Amino acid sequence: MPDQPDVSPPPPAPPPPPSPEEAAASGIPAQRQPGHDTLEPDRPAPVAAASVPSAQVADEGPAGARENGPGEIVPASGVAAGTQAAAVGEAATDADLASGTVGAGEGDGRGDVEGVRARRWVKGGVAVVAALGVLVLGVVLLKPQPKGAAIAAPSVPPASSGAEPATPYDRAVAVLEAQAKALLAGDESGWLAAVDASKAPLVAKYRGLFRNLRGLGVTRFEYEPGLGRAVKGDATALSIRVESLYCFGEQMCPADAATEWAKPPHISQTVTMRPVGGRFVISALGASPNPDFHQPLPWESTDLVFATGKRVVVAAATGQEKYLPVVLPVAEQAAVVADRYAALNGTPQRDYRIFLAGEKQWKSWYGGEPDEWAIGLAMPLNRRGIDVIVRMSEMDDALTLRTTVQHELGHVVTLTGAFQMDAVEDTWLSEGIAEYIGWKPKGAAGSFRKYSVKWQFDRAAPKSIVPVRPGPKAPARAGDAFYGLSHWAADCMAAKYGETKLFTFVRLVLTEDNSYDQASRDAYGVPFATVDKACVSWIRKQAS
Fold first, then answer.
1. 5 lies in some domain
2. At residue 267, what are phi and psi to the nearest 5 degrees?
3. Quick one: 282 and 322 in the same domain?
4. From start to end residue, where is composition biased (Basic and acidic residues) (predicted)?
């Protein structure tokens, strides 16, 4: 088991929850599971006031991001100077959000937060219901809905250190190997020396890749080339399908990786290489005939701007960099909470990666998130690497931003090391524990989902803490109640047995794939049936 990090106190408590009277007109959504999605919790409705895949090399300017230090925002070239100098340090407030600092769309008049909230609350359950039956590829946060709402220029290449490779294919592969070494050495000129200097868009593309990967802290990058194929119309060129393996930290890619899921993640591309001046260079970058299901990843398809804190690297798509000064301190606070539970779970993190997506990126990164109610995503890349994505157009207020980021980091620390992506039958536990972490220091009683839980008890009281996953024709609030009940289940196990034993149970189920009964006996010393019966009664009393 890796060493555990120091445990720091949780962040200050968020604003108090609404009163039951205020809740009369509210509703919630939940989270989905095709990766690990996040639904937003049910809360009262306030009165309303009046990416391009890597295969497509666009003619874009250079990214311009540079190496950065803690708390420094590193924008792409061309970003306004005012953004570059933005200060990082204060958490988001409703006033920030209302003024457009967070969540306001480009020219869409969303500065009126009350109006935005009124629209938001009618989103929810339907998406969750559909998503809960999908095998987990990530984790998403969905939004709540109101009560009663309808369902709605290169340098000279380095000198050769040995004999010239014998064949054109060997010579081309040697160039790719030298390019990968230049990336890890922080040598941008050496990296770009592998690219045809006469193709400005392609050079800009590779400059962006270099700066994105360096900004994310790349520690391993290597090409695994396939067969070289002739290029029609150019007898000297080669087309090679390559798998690009990458790691952000040794923790993400341990040396003893024995299974495919534990090995480094990768992207699949096709490069065309031709000789220029007696040396092969990349003259075209195209799609692989068999891309990885994660593609396109943020760093391969978008120029990113970075803000780096002590525990978190926040990367924003171009156009979303204005949110970096608000999101970074919120993410740093969330990381303090996540680190505490990573220590309990035995999954300490070197750092956390959070990507801020505009609508274009939200609909393309990792294959695109089709669920319009999803507002956050935790995407496992391999057994120990998980990316977090936040949909900035839906971050309408400070509480939504905080609980979304904290929830997704909760997925990171509880799914790191899992032998498989996730099992559908364990969705209640993975989402319940993410809600448990996401709403801290409040418990389930302070979550807006409690109204949907009460709705569920009034309709049909659950007989187990493993809630029945709603079907596609279930009422909209059913998905939200699923998340709420899962949160209550985590609260109950913590109250009765303590957090340390709760996280032992979570680890045994989610990462070691034990049965509920075996995990319960090992963690709590009693059969799961005993835990289940006691917690159903406990939840009924607490939620009434």
1. no
2. -120, 155
3. no
4. 34-43
